[in-house]
Records
---
Amino acid sequence: MDAAYVCGSRRLTRATDELGAEHAFSGYVFLEEKMGCGIGFCKGCPVRLRNGGGYKLVCTEGPIFSTREVELSGPIFPPQEVGIW
Amino acid sequence: MSAGLKTAVGSLRLKNPVMPASGTYDWFGRDQAQVSAGQLGAVVTKSVTLEPQKGAPPTRVAETPLGMLNAIGIPSVGLDTFMNDVLPKYRELATAVIVSVQAYSPEECETMAARLDEEPRVDALELNLSCPNLEHGIITAQSPELSAEMVAAARRATQLPIVAKLSPNVTSIVEIARAVEESGANALCLINTLKGMAINVETRQALLGNLSGGLSGPAIKPVALYMVWECYEEVDIPIIGAGGVSTVQDAIEFLLAGARAIQVGTATFREPRALEQVVSGLRDYLSAERIESVSELVGWCHGERNVVGS
């Protein structure tokens, strides 16, 4: 197996990522996000990157991302993270 | 007839009164731009901050009846990268370039204005005094004193026209407008978004990552229109109207209320050619109404012409 593709569930995405790391295959996740324009103008559809790497836009830099790249924690972000930008 | 569309916002001369609202159009994105910048009166950049910042956590946008909420939080590459990598690209655009500046203190504002003053391709600065989505929750444009300090700081650093973009989230916008006029602003941009929120009933949490956001789109047009009308009565500096302009009729309403130029923002997300459509619609309107210059429309709806019930 060379790669696995996943969409819909964060839990399944995390599992794919963990299995990929264990068995040396690539994981890709197909993400969605509410969008304003859909063409990169409004910066309205960010996906959080791991290790404080900021954000990428789902519309123009996705919608398919490596599971290694994106933050896979729950969809509700804790309030204390609101202030970091 | 395109000579008839010429307008001026103070010393800033524009080939027509139409420009994008800051943060809503990008001529240098991945896809080819739908509207050539040369057709527009000006282009306005996404707000730039002195230091790089990442922007707000998701979710950043939400749909509302007749509009949308956003809490983008101004992701910015920072002024150095902006001046080295982004701004040079604007040199190729055949129109006026207005740089939107987001400063967090008068000192920062002065520093940024001084740096931008060195770039010959910048035709004006728009001071974003009114972003509703910033960390500390304070909107500069809610305080006449702080707004005046920001404008005065930029004024010390540059002779470029300064446009103060104000917030509708105030008791009296005229008070803020007067304060920035007295401290050296050359024009007003009215209005930024109205603060609002949305809640997801499934998670029972605020829908936006920032909790609150800014409401834009047709829903806020009447609010914006009245603020333009009110400020036209009370201050002397020219006004750029913004807030829910989607069609040429909206644009004309703002001109009649007293705006010398208008910005189109949210409408672009629904129709990427909205800017172009407003320009051609204005041209058609002048022609059909046999009006020689768009400036004849500016402020029509004031004084003796404003006959109640007419």
Note: The beta strands of chain A are 3-7, 26-30, 46-48, 55-57, 64-66.
---
Amino acid sequence: MARFPAALGERVASLLVALAAWEAAARIAQSRLFPGPGSVLATLADEALHGELLHDLGATLARVAIAFTLAMAVGTVVGIAMARSRTIDTLLDSGVVLLLNLPALVIAVLLYIWLGLTEVAAIGAVTLSKLPTVVVTLREGARTLDRDLGDMAKSFHFGHWRTFRHVILPQLSPFFLVASRTGLALIWKIVLVVELLGRPDGIGYAIQVFFQLFDVRRLIAYALAFVAVMLAVEWGVLQPLERRLARWRR
Amino acid sequence: MAPVTVGLSINIGEKRYPGHAGAKTVTALRDLQARIAPSEFCVITGPSGCGKTTLLNIIAGIDHDFAGALSFAPPDRGAPRIGYVFQSPRLLPWRTVRENVALVRPRHADRTELEGLLTDVGVADMADAYPAQLSGGMTRRVALARAFAIAPDLLLMDEPFLSLDAAAADRLRSLLLRLVSTRPATVLFVTHDLAEAVELADRILVLSPSPGRVVAEMPIVLPRDGRRDRDTLAALQDGLARLADHPIEPPNTAKIAFSRPNSPHRTHK
């Protein structure tokens, strides 16, 4: 904890360096298509107060949250089931490999064709793109479960719930965290593509509009707002969670 | 309530491990019979790989895949509570010492009883530490506390003090004897250290090389204080080796004719 202010200082310093480089590049370019940080931040504030930014950001975050939760829940169950049963593993393995290698764009286009330009298709496409990596990661985790601890739980009659809660879940938590991390990073990117293709709101939709207007200032402002939220989740939720789960390690 | 412990009669026809992927089927135990009296401290010894751990796993109910039967006495008592101390402590690394011990007990079990047990095994000061922060001896103490936490009728111990230095193993053996005297249980203790076997046992069972069966048994009727004498150990070892019809590694070279002490009383101290 004592190191935290120092780490924060370093972070601020590196951020300032990046901003300075950006500002310098913008001054050299002298172009409407390459705005500096000052004007972008002003636009960001203006859009947040008077524009559609918060609405679009909210719509995108809701899609991310739903798709993420669905993919993690279904992926965890399927992954554990595949690790525990050879039959299920054999039956589902090809499907997982196929989905793993199918570009997210293809999944999105197909779902929009089959289900129409609907919210279900959008969220479904994001979920399906994320699902196979969760399955594969959790399957790997469930395969490495410690048999000795399982036998211990059995001999002391832990029962299903205690065994799951105190023996299995803690062993899976690092894999769960990895899946969350990589999953969130993946979903952020896919969700914009899906919105751009077939949704009337969200950051992805806004980016498309600004692209057609060549409005780079607002385009960057929207993207920055989005990145800021991602970082907040990473630093505010994932990293504290990781520290908490790793408390017992020495 | 007077503590009543259980007796156990073991009758295993055969225990095989099926060979996977071309490996040959291994028979771990065959025709293994033994009776363990209530409150008896029975030590099982034998060459490595003779199925000692397999036998404990069967008794613990971890392994159901064997031909034969186990019966506990008295039969009207219901399922016996079995505490198991494994070769490695097998503590949950992500739970504190107290949580590790509390987890084997019913959810609303008496907390003061738990704290008393932690004090008795000498880990009360470390109750909020995680296992990785403890020494090897301390983790064994926690494993011992966990086994006693369910007030076991039967205690299974699989070389529980292996890989500890001599002094630490010594302290833990004394602790175990103290715990058994205040919290009576029938004990099945596996070791291949003959000195340890002699120090603890009321009776020693010797298993044959794989597939394991009981080839010799020897009651140890000496008072516990007199068991650490080198000559006594050598004599007992010699006798055991003769009974088992295969040699056991000697701890020293003294050869003393084996003679059985005549005192019929088991001395618990």
Note: The longest helix of chain B spans residues 166-182.
